[in-house]
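A common beginner's mistake is to predict each chain separately and then try to dock the pieces by hand. The better habit, illustrated here, is to supply every component at once so that their relative placement is modeled jointly.
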Amino acid sequence: MTTQRRHKTNPGRFFEDYRVGQTIEHAVPRTVSGGERALYHALYPARHALYSSDTFAGACGLPASPLDDLAAFHVVFGKTVPDVSLNAVANLGYAEGRWLKPVWPGDTLRSVSEVIGLKPNSNGKTGVVWVRTTGLNQNDEAVLEYVRWVMVRKADPGAQVPEPVVPDLAKAVPADRLVIPDGLDFSTYDFTLAGEPHRWGDYEIGETIDHVDGVTVEEAEHMLATRLWQNTAKVHFDLTFRPEGRLIYGGHVISMARALSFNGLANAQMIVGLNGGAHANPCFAGDTIKAWSEVLDKAETPAPGVGAIRLRLVATKGGDPFRLKNDEGRYLPEVLLDLDYWALMPL
Amino acid sequence: MTTQRRHKTNPGRFFEDYRVGQTIEHAVPRTVSGGERALYHALYPARHALYSSDTFAGACGLPASPLDDLAAFHVVFGKTVPDVSLNAVANLGYAEGRWLKPVWPGDTLRSVSEVIGLKPNSNGKTGVVWVRTTGLNQNDEAVLEYVRWVMVRKADPGAQVPEPVVPDLAKAVPADRLVIPDGLDFSTYDFTLAGEPHRWGDYEIGETIDHVDGVTVEEAEHMLATRLWQNTAKVHFDLTFRPEGRLIYGGHVISMARALSFNGLANAQMIVGLNGGAHANPCFAGDTIKAWSEVLDKAETPAPGVGAIRLRLVATKGGDPFRLKNDEGRYLPEVLLDLDYWALMPL
Amino acid sequence: MTTQRRHKTNPGRFFEDYRVGQTIEHAVPRTVSGGERALYHALYPARHALYSSDTFAGACGLPASPLDDLAAFHVVFGKTVPDVSLNAVANLGYAEGRWLKPVWPGDTLRSVSEVIGLKPNSNGKTGVVWVRTTGLNQNDEAVLEYVRWVMVRKADPGAQVPEPVVPDLAKAVPADRLVIPDGLDFSTYDFTLAGEPHRWGDYEIGETIDHVDGVTVEEAEHMLATRLWQNTAKVHFDLTFRPEGRLIYGGHVISMARALSFNGLANAQMIVGLNGGAHANPCFAGDTIKAWSEVLDKAETPAPGVGAIRLRLVATKGGDPFRLKNDEGRYLPEVLLDLDYWALMPL
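With all components supplied together, the output reads:
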């Protein structure tokens, strides 16, 4: 044994390594199959019928049941971690997310990101990086796009930093920019098989729903999930790196909360827009995740029988539902996630 | 945030909500694939060759290796939970179960139940509900049927209750009512590849077999399994709901015990009848499940080389094998499961 | 309940049951699918692009992405456990391993072993058994072969034992005996999608690489993995059998370390040779597995753009990288695995 070559391993990018306009082709494309789908259903109490049944999806005008929208998101997101968030201090937000095409078993996904903003922090040690990430399938069709921003460390506190560029991001995806999957038709939607009778017209803006159910999460589960999406961030796996407890991947909380929201939102079938999201507090094994939702907006769509509903999805680890922030506007300590998304629902 | 609408979530049915003759179409059909099969083999030490190998199944006259019988059972059963056992106090028994058609990867399963019996308990707070559940595939062919009865709470102790109707259930499925899968032929059965030399003729009625192996169960595993079958009962997942410990889904114990029974019953290949079953005591993470079997009956079948064997399968969490009940006829505290089923075995 | 028939269960073979030249056809063939692949990626942080993406594999001249080499190894190995290592005291080594054909989703694998060596130990209680195991697919084509030797107990200390036969095993598979998969062509290899720029020419013999990342392992995970490969050894599952802690299947450590080695060896795509391996110390849940590698040798191959690299892969549970043995030549207590293999890498 002679020379040690740690430099062959990926150190991740630091703040000074990014430039606005830079394009990053993320590594390790992935082919998905019924295996990923079965695992998704084992990891989360996912019951939305369109993602559970080929016949139900067929009756809604789709050729088959697609991979869960959030599974597609996690696959695309996971690829960006080695390039974007390996040296991240915090995952700050999401915006302008749109699902553009369903992902089918057999598809191969890869991810590409463009750096769209950079802002050094006044402490001189960190900065904020904005990237717009696109997930592409084997035909180079975009299946998903979203903006994410993270706080990233500098490798060299004295490194020159660029002029700040802060992108102007939409507060929410406008309803007319949502992409409805080809052929989707809810005009003969089977509410009995879907599990609940509540249609788009039954939800009012401002209405809140306590999803009641909870899941106490385990180390083995969140690691299985996070690895499945090929997310390599050390904090999720290595207790010697983070002796105070492995941090659960924020996407695990998103998927758990969304699956729990079936109970009361069984007909919020397809996620088509991600308006924003905050991982308000960290989640650890042993926490019991519960969820509540608030209807933020509603819109019509050109597809037959299909309405869009904008939902706030809040995941908590205790406390009463419907509580979000304290008097100073800070998230309460029991709030794990505050997500803002658009879903498609039968009229 | 304004009106709270908890009523959009499913409260489950209470005793007074059932009527004899009522038909319940259960929600969320499910398409199964090689993913469910792989997960079944990761969750249980399943080794019956017919469910492990397309070539072995082909040599037995089947087009391919079907989904494990008990996986099919769990999928069908899981759908009934939100409608039948969400407010159940206890799962009391099974009867008249028959597997009617193999389930293949690609099949979509749904479940329908008929209420066939109701009996209020004298305490005025609970009652017993009997349902006959049928699992159907995408061609509306029945793949499985069974009777289950549960003790269910009343929402309103003063609610009017119907006249008792107690169904007359067979003590065991008669051998001539067992359905042999189309094409099944054990006349050229390969005992070497199956793993044991013992054929139908080698087992005697009254014979008992200690399956020797054991598995110490973990929280993550039983939750993965229970979610995979889309069984939503809170007691399995939410430690804040049940601080004394998450109760392990009884079907997890059934599958674990059946898989352990490979060692001594490797040739009891296909389950075709469920005569009865009791979840004698609760199972928790940390328990070590072991199993023993007793040969209860044997019968011939019209299929070439195929015999039927009726087995008692007992799962325990400690203690010596072959002990079941105390002098008062009560299950010993270490007994988890007492199952009575028919399997097909090479002559 | 009458006669107890424990003899129907498999007691495993004891040292005196083996004869040189004996052929053992192992039971329970297995068909693999996308499910096994997805589970492999959930259980290990596997990111080698050729096993992740059909399109990447296609661009390398293969018809699709094969099942991970080590998953194929585990399936073939698992079948041998009931016949070879159920009464093993220790798994002593591997040699002359070669991957002969990729395994594709849909393939059915079985295993056959030949006893090639026997040596009784001087204590009279145990002996060493050498077997050469071959994995075969549904067309009876060999996909994998390797020699393994284990120390096995005698059932009867007084049993007659054969004359010692110690096979003469190659220290390493010669590079010209490595089998390159049909069609493999790395001449247009995409280093960006693969995740690292380092090609065969960038690695020097003697070079060492610290793979940096670590995974703290959990009981549920190693049991899921070990069951998936149908490995039935009690020590991995039954805490009443081994109250000091369930021993983690050595193959779990191999796969974990290999997956971690992506970081620094992302282009060591296909494993084609297993020269040797020692499970230096036992691994238990709670251990954090890390890995480092050393380049032992390099060779050219006849395939376009394809080089072979011989690597030592060391898994540890703590301590500094690049430390292996103490002054007396014994493995340090933190070393879990010392594996010697050949991989294929783009020139």
